[in-house]
Structures are given as structure tokens and as C-alpha cells.
Specification:
There is one protein chain. This protein is of the alpha/beta class. The chain folds into 2 domains: about 35-135 and about 360-370, no CATH class; about 145-355, no CATH class. Helix content is about 40%, strand content about 10%. The strands form 2 sheets. Strands 2-1-3-10-4 form a 5-stranded mixed sheet. Strands 7-6-8-5-9 form a 5-stranded mixed sheet, sandwiched between helices. The longest helix has 20 residues, at about 155-175. It is globular, with a radius of gyration of 20 Å. This is Thiamine pyrimidine synthase. It comes from Agathobacter ruminis.
Length: about 375
């Protein structure tokens, strides 16, 4: 265990719709951190061996507030009990070995584990991790959504907002260092050093798909990735309300996404006759490089170029979840995960995904090879 006098409390964008009691219930695969995530394997054990040892000792950790479904699917894949330790929002449990396999987002907690800047644990490349994408249990994260009624009533506004936002994301992916600086100037919730790390890793999630292939169109809604996400969610999400739970099980992709606005944005020459000149978007968490595309679009004037007089970027993580805020009209657009949106719609909301920003899961299970 490494000692330090300072701790940076880390937080991960998590599901914010009400989700009730969860229930969940291989062949060997060589471990090795995916090239796109930038690591190398330091263990000769297979992923199955590592997961089995951690699970059997009850030392698999997760926050349990929305992105545990991938962990449950992974444990089920290896025919292991679907239980895990409740992990707090630091990586102290990983550090003191009370958690052998700790959940971490590549763009956040993994950086704190590996790096030595303020709040970091400084393990460097001595750690390894199991990638949900490599294991075939990945679920999609950040997308852009609005209500179906808003999109229907304001099609030019939606297409224009997407056009400018995607332009911001394209620039951010190509210039992550500058994007990190822009996020910091707009009130980032993390240090400049961690912000720079986050921007590099978020760029990978935006520009690489679940199979590791390069994404040619940022924001594209890939049916196979979305279907995988929805199918896993249906296995492990149980909503409190029986009617909502039944509705959730019957959802299809056509119920929760509409690609026509994305297609209109991509086909546009950048000129729009927008119906609403001032719009807002609520993030899933506090300002940082996880949302760098929107800050870049704002900073570079891309929203003004398509006709908006004002675009407000609203922090998430407060009392009102992004799904609720969009559904009740407090904001026009939001950033959420597909599972959250599907759960909200099954519960009676009127939401629709209009672009998929993250193309692969950012969740990994990090471990110290010497513990295995």
C-alpha cells in the first residue's frame, strides 16, 4: 500500500434514474490491456483466472449506481456469483488491497491510479486491467438526447445543435491538449494535469469503437453496439415499478433513438433556420474533459456560427437528474447513458437519443498483478 497525505475524491458519471433491486444470475482468454487504452499486460494469468479469484474472495468492486451491469454481465460470463463490494469514489480500496479488482473509468480513476500528480496514487504501468470492450460486455455511455416532442417541434434547432456540437467534438478529439485547457478555463472540477489526461482518454472513447476500430463519423449511432447495451440492460436492470419494468423489457432501439436529426446535421452545409435561438444542455456530471466537445463548440463559436444567440452548458450531479431536467423542459438537451434513457422512457418519459458520443465503454477493472 502506498501512503500519501492527500486524496482527490474521484467521481464517475453514474446512472441517475431510479433503479431498484438488481439480480443476475468460458473459455479462457489471455489478459492484456487493449492497445486503444494504452497499456500492456504484466500478468500471465487469463482474465478468467483473475476474475474468478477476485470474485471467489468477494473482492470485486463497483460503485453500484448505474454502471454495475457490465460487471454483472462479466461475472455471469464466467459463471460466477453476481455480487460485488460497494466501492467508494476514491481508489483507496484498490490501494490498500481490500479490493482486488476495482472498477475504474479509463478517463478518470485509472488515471488517478497510474499517475503521480496531485491526488494520484502513482502506480504507473505496474497495474493491469480487464477491459469490458475486450470481454464483450461493454455498454455505451455518453450520448446527446432531447424529448421526442422538442425534436419534432424544433427539427432545425436539433440538427443545428448537433452540427455545432459534433464539430466541437471533432476538434477536441484532434486537439485534446487544447480541449483540456478550454475545459479548465470554463471551471473544470479537476486539476489541469488530470484534465489533460482525461482529454486524451476521452478522445479514444469517442474515436474508437467496441471492437477497437477507428470511428469515421463522430456521433454515429451504431445499431450493434446499442443493441448489445440494451440487451445487457434488460438482463440486469429491474425498475421499482412493475409496469415500468414490463415496458423496459419490451423496448426496441426504434423506441429510444432517432437517427434522422444526426443525418440532417451531417448532410448540412452549416446553414439552419433554427426555431429556438437560445438553448441549454445539462451534463451528466461536473465540468471536465468528459464533456470537452461542448465546451470547445462554445469557445470556438461553433454554436453562434449556426445561429444560436446563447447556449448554456449546465453542470450535472445536482438534485435534478439530466433525464428529468430534459423531460420537464428545464433544459433542452442532455448527456446521459443509453441505459438511463431507456429506463426513463420505460418509466413514462418522452426522451430520444439523437447522437452517440462515446463509442465504447470506459469501464475497466484494474488490478495489481502481484496479487494474483
Amino acid at each position: 500500500m502506498k501512503e500519501r497525505t492527500r486524496r482527490l475524491v474521484t467521481t464517475t458519471a453514474i446512472a441517475s434514474v431510479a433503479i431498484g433491486l438488481l439480480s443476475g444470475c468460458g473459455g479462457k482468454q489471455e489478459t492484456g490491456n487493449s492497445e486503444s487504452a494504452g497499456g500492456t499486460s504484466t500478468s500471465e494469468l487469463s482474465a478468467a483466472d483473475i476474475i474468478k479469484k477476485a470474485a471467489e474472495s468477494g473482492q470485486v468492486g463497483n460503485w453500484g449506481l448505474g454502471n454495475e451491469y457490465e460487471v454483472l454481465a462479466l461475472l455471469s460470463k464466467y459463471e460466477l456469483p453476481t455480487s460485488y463490494l460497494s466501492q467508494d469514489f476514491t481508489m483507496d480500496g484498490f490501494d490498500d488491497n481490500s479490493i482486488l479488482l476495482a472498477s475504474a473509468m479509463t478517463y478518470n480513476e485509472l488515471g488517478l491510479v497510474k499517475n503521480s500528480y496531485d491526488g494520484g496514487y502513482g502506480y504507473g504501468d505496474s497495474v493491469a486491467y480487464i477491459d469490458m470492450n475486450d470481454e464483450g460486455v461493454a455498454m455505451l455511455e455518453d450520448n446527446i438526447f432531447c424529448t421526442k416532442s422538442f425534436a419534432k417541434e424544433n427539427p432545425e434547432t436539433v440538427a443545428a445543435f448537433l452540427y455545432a456540437s459534433l464539430k466541437g467534438w471533432e476538434y477536441a478529439v484532434e486537439h485534446p491538449e487544447e480541449a483540456a485547457e478550454i475545459c479548465y478555463e470554463y471551471g473544470s472540477s479537476v486539476s489541469p494535469e488530470h484534465q489533460a489526461y482525461m482529454a486524451e482518454e476521452v478522445a479514444k472513447l469517442v474515436s474508437t469503437d467496441m471492437s477497437g476500430a477507428t470511428v469515421t463519423e463522430i456521433g454515429f449511432m451504431d445499431d450493434s453496439a446499442m443493441e448489445q447495451t440494451l440487451n445487457i440492460a434488460k438482463q440486469y436492470v429491474t425498475l421499482d415499478d412493475a409496469t415500468a419494468n414490463k415496458a423496459f423489457q419490451s423496448l426496441t432501439l426504434d423506441d429510444i433513438r432517432d437517427a434522422s436529426y444526426y443525418e440532417a446535421a451531417k448532410a448540412s452545409d452549416g446553414k439552419f433556420d433554427i426555431e429556438k435561438k437560445s438553448v441549454s444542455i445539462q451534463l451528466k456530471w461536473l465540468p471536465d474533459a468528459q464533456f470537452m466537445g461542448y465546451y470547445v463548440a462554445l469557445d470556438k463559436g461553433y454554436y453562434k456560427e449556426v445561429g444560436f444567440e446563447k447556449v448554456d452548458i449546465v453542470s450535472g450531479g445536482g438534485d435534478i437528474a439530466e433525464t428529468t431536467a430534459v423531460n420537464n423542459g428545464t433544459v433542452d438537451f442532455g448527456v446521459t447513458w443509453e441505459t438511463n434513457l431507456a429506463s426513463a422512457d420505460a418509466s413514462g418519459m418522452d426522451l430520444v437519443e439523437i447522437a452517440q458520443i462515446f463509442q465504447r465503454s470506459g469501464l475497466v477493472l484494474v488490478y495489481k498483478p502481484e496479487n494474483f
